Amino acid sequence: MEESLALAAIDFGGRPSLVYKARFRRERVGDLDSDTIPEFLRGLTRGARADLHVVLPYGWNDHHKAESLFKAVGKAIRLAASRDGRYRGLIASTKGMLE
User: Which pTM was predicted?
Assistant: First the structure.
């Protein structure tokens, strides 16, 4: 990740949506076409029926920026999918149900 920072938040609430604010200087990051990153994330949100926000406020090296972006998304997924011990026996939803 080095000099880059990415932030991500995800909600598995049943309404797929993507907010993506990231820029890359080059068309490719190694073998990865940088234009496919938001397309991948859009497909992830549709398949998971999730609302995902990804922001990459700074970074210089495109490889580091992509790495920080995917790590942030992975950590957001892990946090959103894990149980919170403070709510034992309760459904983790303000709607009272999970789809």
Answer: 0.86
State which H helix or E strand residue 74 sits in.
helix 62-81
Closest Cα to residue 44, out of 75, 69, 77? 77
User: pLDDT tens, 35-46?
Assistant: 999 999 999 999
Q: Distance between CA 15 and CA 51 in Å, rounded?
A: 6
| Mean predicted confidence (pLDDT) in 59-87 | 93
Q: Which fold has domain 5-82?
A: Ribosomal Protein S5; domain 2 (3.30.230)
Closest CA to 52 of 28, 80, 29, 27: 80
